[in-house]
Amino acid sequence: MRVGVDIGGTKTQAVAVADDGTVLASRVRPTVRGPRGVLDTAVRAVADVAGAGGGSRAPESVGVGIPGAVDAASGTVRTAVNLDLDALPLGAELARRTGLPVRVENDVKASALGAAQRFGGPAGTVTYLNVGTGVGAATVLRGALLRGTAGWAGELGHLVVEPDGPACGCGQRGCLEAVAGGGALRKRLAALDPPVALPDLCSSADLGGRLARERDRVVGALAQALTAAALAYDPDVIAVGGGVLAHGTGLLPRVLDTLRARATTSAFLTDLAIDRRIRTVPEDWPVAAVGAALVGALPPEPAAGALAG
Fold it and tell me: Which residues contact 68 (CB under 8 A, 6 or more apart)?
């Protein structure tokens, strides 16, 4: 049995996962920010599920998924802004506090491992796209995370989809995150007259067409990103999840319709069959925490610089 911990800005979820992949227990607790708060939250989260396997046998390992730049070799987390962390040797400290082997990974990369387990199998290639407050992505190739030279392989959030689009926090303009990320999208919807909430993005009650323009903009950006994922990695599955797709009711079907419409004028896109590769991660399945448990089972990373996700 292995424990996975997904640490988010507001909540932390821990799961106990059996060797066959069955989720034995799942618990959620609020995240306390700051170095001491994050570490204490992680320790308590592990304790919440550590006994799920029954008997006196301790978990074999703990895996942690967390936002920010993660040095997977040392388990150090840097620049996790929404957790008030500059640098925290989370892996070493959590191992000391729990007495268990600990591996730490960026949360989106951990989620990609969870998505690969659910949809891809050991021989498959899976790209995971999380459209939440920010936009993150990662790719798993035959069970292994595809990192690239500096850890950015598979990352689609800063793919430019509108060259003259809104400024992004990364310094570019028109990134997928700046166009379709929940943080940027909610601000634009709130600025409409009257203001609109994300669940109403695909509403038919549209005054003046402004909502339709925002909806079409997001749909086009996501379709472009999914096409890029298919072309770059040719994955068996493109798994999608995150709050924007969960709360933006009707958004993903429109993206699929857009992909199918584009394919009608291109034999190349017809053969690529992007729409048939897409799978939605169920809202009630803890993809990030399960992926974190899989992180704990990975062999040690060779010492290297920080790998951002």
Answer: 77, 78, 79, 80, 81, 83, 85, 106, 308
Query: Could you tell me the two tokens for 89?
Result: 């040797």
At 13-31, the pLDDT tens digits run 999 999 888 999 999 999 9
Report the distance separating Cα 41 and Cα 44, nearest Å: 5
Cβ–Cβ under 8 Å, residues 194 and 241:
no
Locate 257 and state its tokens.
Answer: 């319709």
The 10s digit of each residue's pLDDT in 106-118 is 999 999 999 999 9
> What is the model's pTM?
0.91
Tokens 């387990």: give the residue: 117
Q: Which residues contact 285 (CB under 8 A, 6 or more apart)?
A: 118
User: DSSP assignment of 109-176, as one string?
Assistant: HHHHHHHHHHHT-TT-EEEEEEESSSEEEEEEETTEE---SSS-TT--TT-BS-TTS-B-TTS-BSBH
Which position has the higher pLDDT, 122 or 267?
267
For residue 122, the number of C-alpha atoms closer than 13 Å in the C-beta half-sphere is: 2
**pLDDT confidence of residue 25:** 95
pLDDT at 147 over 50: yes
Contact by Cβ (8 Å): 309, 70: yes
| Enclosing H/E stretch for 80 | strand 76-80
